[in-house]
Amino acid sequence: MKLVLSEGARLDFRASAEADAVNSEMQRRLGLSTRYAPARLAIALSLGLPFDESEITSVENCETGKAIRGETLFGTGQQLATWVALFVQADRTGTAMNRERLKLLVTFHWSRGIRLLSDRFKAAGGDFDKFIETLVSSVETGAEERQLQQL
Amino acid sequence: MYISEIELVNWKAFDHALLKFGKFRKSKNIGLVGADNGFGKTSLLEALILCLFGRDGMKDVGRGRQGGADGAESYDRFLERALHSSALSSGLQKMSVGVRFTTQDGEHLGVRRSWYFSRSGTHKAADEEVHLYEGEDEDLVEIPRSVDKVDFVRNWVATNLVPVSLAGFFLFDGEIVRQLADESMSSQVRRGIEGILGVPTLKELADDLEKYAYSRRREGGSADTAQLDAIAAEVAQLEREVAVVASALDALEAEYRTARDERDALTERLSALTGGAAFATLREVLEQRERVRVKRDKLRERVNEILAQELALALVAPSLAAEAVDQIAGEVSYAEWVRSRSQIDKVEELVTRVRDLSPNVEPPLSAAQTAQVLQQIREGWHKLWESAPAHAISAERHGYLSEAEKRSVLSSLRDRASGRIGEIVGVQEDIATAERELRKLDQQSANSAPEAIVADLREKLEAAQLRADDVSRRAGDASRSKAALASDLGNRKATLSRLSQQIGDASPARARADLAESYAELIREAIDAALPQHIEAVAFAMTEAYGEIAHKKVVKRIEIDPDCVVRLLGESRGRNLRELDQSAGEAQVFALSLISAIIRVSGFRFPIVMDTPIARLDSKHRINVLRHFAELEGQQLILLSQPTEVHGQYLDVLRTRVGASFSLSFTALANGQGRSKVVPGYFGEAL
User: Fold this and answer.
1) Which residues of B fall within a CB distance of 8 Å from A142?
2) Which of A37, B377, B383, B663 is such that its CA lies 20 to 30 A from the CA of B357?
3) A14 vs chain B: nearest CA distance in angstroms?
4) B488 to chain A: nearest residue by CA?
């Protein structure tokens, strides 16, 4: 069945069980008050990276962690629409988007992304301030590239 | 009560048998039935058991118990084997057993059970009929249509005659006694007492309740229950973690207060040495330091907030965001173009207006020129909407978004890396500024005291300040961690509550399952509570019976503890004679003592029917057993005996009490089977 945006708010999304544990660890290490905070950072890191269908199917039947509802993980209204649009855009495999596909993509990106986030944190020596600095500088680098492209 | 009559039709070797026991008298309470092995003696006992209890009685039918594990199958097959050999060939497809009882009050009770067979001799469970009779005129008891017939008959027999749980203690043969004797004493006792209490029925009820609970839970789906359990476990774990962190936080706060007090004390001492001005400066410096530290910590919280909200979106790869913007903008553009194509229809309107205005053109146009101009206007107009704008995209990927939502997403993606990210940078800079100020203040505090005299104090003060800072930082981390856990816990608890509500609401069967389980537990507890109350009575009755039956008067008392563990106590108290090996015969004496005790303690005055239980006993024990059971107060005793068992001295024990006597004679038939008949008198002797 085709995707309906409002349904996305009510869907339950999960990372792999292993990734979920890392998510919880990152939440505590960063002192964040919500589970969705590291999850969003993780998803953001993963979304821009290429993937193929075999990587998606590899998480299809994996053991999963605790669920987060869509409206919590992505927010509502404009926030929800924006995140879903990014998932759809990032899926270049040509597979039709529906609820199940979206859930699978979220599982995949969240699981992959949380590892990237954890690696970055470790690379920053587990130092909160240094970690933020690296994240912000990667955003700035991207912004500069965009500006250069526009010139 | 006593048995006044037994009638067998087509049962085993009996095509027809009628035993009339006459009116019961206390002094003539024995009915004696003699037969050689295989002549139908045991068949008679089996007939009685199955007539009264039907399928439920199979547990007490000696040879039936050796059948298959499936009691249901063995009952039907037993009945098929029980059908008299000549019945089918004579066109008779029915077998029946009837028993008449007379109560102490002279009332009559009767049970007649009939079984029907196919022409080939097959019996099915439904082919069975039971008639019950009551009253002086032996009126047929009507079974209400609304009740289950089997349950009704079972309850009627249990209420008016004897419950099936006690059948084995009133109607037994040597095989039953032997099997009882082979069990441990405690399990024999437990079985007997449970029989008195009707425990097997209650246990069956408890089992049924638990099965019902299980099937109701399965109906509701075990997944939800498992999910509930998992979340409950998570909640418990989170609560533990919160408690641990809260405890650590308390400790840190206490530690901070200690460190701060120490710092303040050192500050005062240092100030006292350096004079008022220095003291004021130092205090101000330290107070300023505290303010800056608090500000820095708040800025860190702000960073956390932005990180969780805007930074995430900003981290998305610019190329992906740009691609999404191009796609969505292209779709919006295409949609606009499609909508605007309706303007094409307005071309004729435009042409008409231009034509109307054409007379005003100087120099005037000829008709051909006018037509050419109008045509060119048409063509130009069409060209405006001929093809979609270059960046418009017709292949829609984001059809789940409305046009308004698409515009909203575009705005979000275009603005994502602006402003708020800058705010993070600004906040980070503020944090850095605060850190620098802290370092400067630390330096100031170090310099404001007279070096030579107070170097030691200054060192201590710096150390105390570092400790206070460190504890403060750790307390901040713990506080954040606690907030994170508490938030997670809140979410989990809300989920748990919601799921519990859903399970409760959506599946009332689960509530019934819980109720059924609680009843089952109640029943089991009631059984455990009731058991000990009867133990003492049984122990006392057993002591009496054992004393009468056993010829070795070594055991003076039988004690049974609440767990039904039996102690046979001798002369010297405390010596448990169970430690002595019991012979098979002695074990049977114990079993028979238990049977006697159960009969007496049960309160049922049902007749005792014994089928040669004394074969394996020595002569002294045999005499004691026969005398004991024959002399049980007000009890009818029907003895089924081989000629070698109740004879001579053993018969002499009973002779004067025999009210009716029969023998079973057997005739072999041509088909290899035989026929048994009842003849009056005990092996030719009228007693």
Assistant:
1) 317-318, 417
2) B383
3) 15
4) A34
pTM: 0.49
The answer to whether B654 touches B623, Cβ cutoff 8 Å, is no
Nearest C-alpha of chain B: how many angstroms from A26? 11
User: What is the distance in angstroms between the Cα of B484 and the nearest Cα belonging to chain A?
Assistant: 4
Query: What single-letter DSSP state applies at residue B309?
Result: I
- Secondary structure element (H or E) that encloses residue B355, with its range: helix B347-357
Structure tokens that stand for B183 in this block: 């069990």
Contact across the interface for B313 and A82, Cβ inside 8 Å: yes
C-beta atoms of A89 and B421 within 8 A: no
Q: Is the dihedral of CA B64, B67, B73, B76 positive or negative?
A: negative
Burial class (CB in 10 A: 0-12, 13-18, 19+), B178: middle
> For B578-588, b where at least 16 C-beta lie within 10 A, e where not — what string?
beeeeeebbbb
* Of B125, B199, B209, B132, residue with least CA distance to B164: B199
For B450-500, the DSSP string reads -HHHHHHHHHHHHHHHHHHHHHHHHHHHHHHHHHHHHHHHHHHHHHHHHHH
Distances B248 to A80, A82, B77, B238, B475 between C-alpha atoms, Å:
38, 41, 74, 15, 8
CB B650 within 8 A of CB B51: no
Tokens standing for A117? 């986030």
- Among the partner-chain residues A40, A77, A136, the one whose CB lies closest to the CB of B428 is A136
Cα B50 to Cα B68, B102, B141, B201, B267: the distances in Å are 17, 19, 19, 18, 101
Is A33 within 8 Å of B304 when comparing Cβ atoms? yes
Contact in structure between B27 and B675 (CB atoms under 8 Å): no
Return the H-helix or E-strand segment holding B111.
strand B108-116
pLDDT digits over B205-248, tens only?
888 888 888 777 766 554 467 777 888 888 888 888 888 988 89
